[in-house]
Design goal:
alpha+beta; 53% helix
């Protein structure tokens, strides 16, 4: 039953991408969806604790991501439109409380979507994401944002055990490998 629902879901996305509902598009979607499910099976294993999505927690996660996208786009737009540069870049090591590889992958992908942040290295043991930040005020601010994103993600997709351990475990201390790299001011006076 789950496989049929996945095929139906992927086929509907295929048809939406083509823009018209035809027999050929639906048949092609079923073939492509079936091939994807054979090539990339989605079975859970014991070392990847991912639970069922929770709609309320998922909506909180989407709201948070949308809010962060709006704020970061506003910062980038302000940086582009104003004279002078307030850019202060840095790389911050953010320890994670989850060791689920699918959740860590999701966190890294969401961080890469946000303008002004990009994961430069992800390590699983111990779980750490190194994030390059365009507007670095303080490393703890970045860690707090990543911790909030991790909390929302685990509550939306994590297993019951992962959610319980998230509530009980305090955030581990960050590694002492932060590299703050300040960029020199840009000379905007032009040549001569």
């Amino acid at each position: 039953m789950r496989r049929a629902l996945r095929i139906l879901f992927l086929t509907s996305i295929w048809v939406l991408l083509w823009g018209t509902i035809t027999v050929a598009n639906v048949a092609g979607g079923v073939v492509v969806a079936s091939m994807l499910l054979v090539l990339y099976p989605t079975g859970e294993t014991a070392d990847t604790p991912v639970g069922r999505p929770r709609p309320i927690a998922f909506s909180r996660l989407i709201g948070y991501i949308f809010g962060q996208l709006v704020l970061s786009n506003a910062f980038i737009a302000r940086e582009i439109l104003t004279r002078g540069s307030n850019i202060r870049t840095g790389i911050v090591a953010c320890r994670l409380r989850t060791d689920s590889e699918p959740i860590i992958t999701f966190l890294a992908n969401v961080l890469s979507l946000t303008p002004g942040t990009i994961p430069v290295h992800v390590q699983v043991d111990p779980p750490v994401i190194y994030v390059h930040v365009l507007h670095l005020d303080h490393p703890d601010t970045v860690r707090t944002q990543v911790e909030r994103l991790e909390d929302l993600t685990v509550r939306a997709f994590g297993s019951h055990e992962a959610i319980a351990s998230l509530s009980m475990a305090p955030a581990p201390p960050a590694p002492a490998t932060d590299a703050e790299i300040s960029t020199p001011p840009v000379d905007e006076s032009g040549p001569g």
